[in-house]
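User: Run a structure prediction on this.
Assistant: Running it now.
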Amino acid sequence: MRRTGLRLRITLLVVAYMLLLSLAVVYHGNVVNERAEKLVWSSLLQSELEHYLRRRAEDPGYHWRDTADVALYGEPGGAATPAKLARLQPGLHDEIHIDGGQRVVLVRDVDGRRLVLTLDITEFEDEERHLTTLMVGSALGGLALSGLLIAWGLRRLVKPLADLARDIAALRPDRGGQRVSVGRRASSELVVISDAVNDYLARNERFVERERAFIDSSSHELRTPVAVIAGASELALGQPGTPDAVRKQLSRILRTARGVEQLISLLLVLAKDPQRLAQVSDHFRLDQLLPEIVDDHRHLCADKDLALDMPPLPACELLAPLAIVQAAIGNLLRNAIENSDRGTISIALEPAGVVVIEDPGHGMSPEEISAIYAKVARGGGGRDGGGIGLDLIARLCEHLGWRLEIEPRTPRGTRVTLDLGAALA
């Protein structure tokens, strides 16, 4: 839905009101003018006819003489009454068209005779139409000029509000120290709004800093015991004569500890400012790292009829946090394995740093897979199985400027695209 600006809405409203008001004034003026005109015509013709009747009563030999504008019909020995006038009823009749002109006609019955007195008003009506046209034109011109003045005035009046709206729209959630300001011409209401927005930004900034400090502190505190557990597990696995049952449990402990270490590393990344991540990025070959990640996850396919297929990879150099890239790709691959029962999982790499993982799925419909992945990608879902979960990966990609796309395949399965080069584009 396309929305219009406040200035345009107020201008249209005021112009529409002025237009209706002008129409009402013109209509009212026309009605009053017609009423006054009839009174003038009636008074004039009545006076003229009364004068004639008095003279006729005083002097029976007096006869009416027509002029260029006034004519009397029905007088003995006078001109015959035109058929159009003969049909009129007694009274005053305005704007009667006769012989290409307009006349006002007064009809009266006197001593059994019908007298018709007419007055030519053609020039008067022409002048009246000219004045009406001039009045309507001046009203429209005044309306257009008023509309321009109103639009200009509203532009100056609404500009502080438009500037404030533009500043609010330009706010970025990943930046600190942002504030909005209003000019000297801003109204008191805009000052209240800007103060409220700035107060909210300050409180939100303090909240984010507290969250980052908490995550940073907690992650550092967790690193030591997890490292101790992982180190002890590795030492125990290295001891000769360890029973297979114990070795299996130690391997499980070691894998879990490594997963927790990855999770802690990701939390530390989320606790950092995105601008500071460039300082801790590593320069590495993604085409050499990807096979190592795939080999580390082949053991997850041991109990399934699954195979990991990776064609020859093109050369690809990348500048990014190495541990985070390993954790993100590893967990996407783990999710693909957990959501598949049989078939082949394809892992591909494009030169621009785009990793594509396609899994065959395990019998769910494309709509169900799409709904689940879309839900967790928006951060609305939890974790299913091991790994850090797609919700945290999605947040991580947003934090680092990477692009993550999840879409269903036909007839089943899922295609996951992780663009690690999007932040560098």
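The radius of gyration is 47 Å.
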